[in-house]
Amino acid sequence: MSFPSGFYWGGATAANQLEGGWQEGGKGISCPDICTGGTATTSKRITPVLEEGTFYPSHDAIDHYHRYKEDIALFAEMGFKMYRFSIAWTRIFPNGDEEQPNEEGLKFYESLIDECLKYGIEPMVTISHYEVPFNLTKKWNSWVDRRMIDCYLRFCKAIFTRYKGKVKYWLTFNEINSATTPMGGFLSQGILNEIKAMDFMDQVDNPNNRFQGLHHQFLASALAVKMAHEIDPNNQVGCMQIMATSYALTCHPEDEIVNQQKGHLMNWFCSDVQCRGKYPNYIKRYFKDNNITVHMEPGDDDILAAGPVDFYTCSYYMSNCQTADESKGTGKGNILGGVPNPYLKASDWGWQIDPIGLRYSLNEIWDRYQKPIFVVENGLGAYDKIDEDGKVRDDYRVDYLRSHIQQMHEAILDGVDLRGYTPWGCIDLVSASTGEMAKRYGFIFVERYDDGTGDFSRRKKESFYWYKKVIETNGEDLD
């Protein structure tokens, strides 16, 4: 059952979901900073004008900005070989359009990276993880405007240069394919089609803006790959996708066609561009059928062709089913739509749990691209509680992770070149989709709650000790 020698075990986080310190060290306002908290009964909202007395979870998050040394020491105690984290764009360029970077922000991440290296932990850095400078949203409506490319590349140049020789693995955009859905317009791209307070999950959508924004992100990614290789030939740059595994609900041919069409758009369109260096033919019909026009300039095809990524990474949480029968309705909780699979159980948030779908997906990815793969997000959001004896018994999380690790090993035996695994939210943090703390993923419990209370203290869950054993035995001991 052992994994390959040198396999990267670790964990993953994002700056806006754990750092806090939202106005410290010269940091500017990012799009997550204007999102309110949410709970099981109240929706997360976008408020372009900050409201006095409103709780904004990213402002303090879990206070990692002041506690990163403590947190990384805990990661090292588990035996992490890799830590995937993101650099907040607004710590380096507070407004996004400055000519020179903020030195205090660069120093903060340098110290964080050095802390990882001290313990032998390989950093994997996401350059843009659901965090666009809000100034660029107000100024240009973010990635709708081609000028965003130059701002992004200045950001890349600053961090590629500063952390040369310390960071080898880079990801250009987190879950870039989320922008193929209406929710991704603001979450992923910082695009607001109406500048007003609105329900985060029910935004005014403009598909033209989203796909124009994606085109600019594709160009920025390709140019960043080229830049990274020029600054340091040892740099490896990857894409990061949501792997939204889907199946036809029945063997009816119409269900198969609907599943293929939706799978192409969600799972393959963005990675086809980033891995193959060109737009796939099937997207042309989608654009035509949906009256989407993407403006491209002469030379754009050459830029894409010259900047394919070096490796592929994805998140994997759930699968869903697709059907042509509209009477079946949509799934509850499966954030990416589809209809429920009658053979699967679901998490507390209705996300259907499908470990075998991970093996299936890894084989599909490998067969399609033949590039090294990392699973950089996977995990179970659940309501964890502290028992009377002070312990957090999260056997359900262990069961979830164990079953997915087993299927990753099966994929490796199938011939997939899988290099690493960094489960999501290795320490409790703010949920990106709901703005909750109650939806916990971590191996480490953080005393922080949805009403803004809590002292930020850390305690190890039972899964902490289990994952430590998994890493020590390179995946052999999963009991």
Automatic annotation (TrEMBL):
Protein keywords: Glycosidase, Hydrolase
InterPro entries listed in its UniProt record: GH, GH_1_N_CS, Glyco_hydro_1, Glyco_hydro_1_AS
EC number: 3.2.1.-
Protein family: Belongs to the glycosyl hydrolase 1 family.
Pfam families, per database record: Glyco_hydro_1 (PF00232)
Organism: Massilimicrobiota timonensis
Annotated PANTHER family: 6-PHOSPHO-BETA-GLUCOSIDASE, GLYCOSYL HYDROLASE
Full protein name: Glycoside hydrolase family 1 protein
Residues at the active site: E377 (nucleophile)
Single GO molecular function: hydrolase activity, acting on glycosyl bonds
Enzyme class: hydrolase
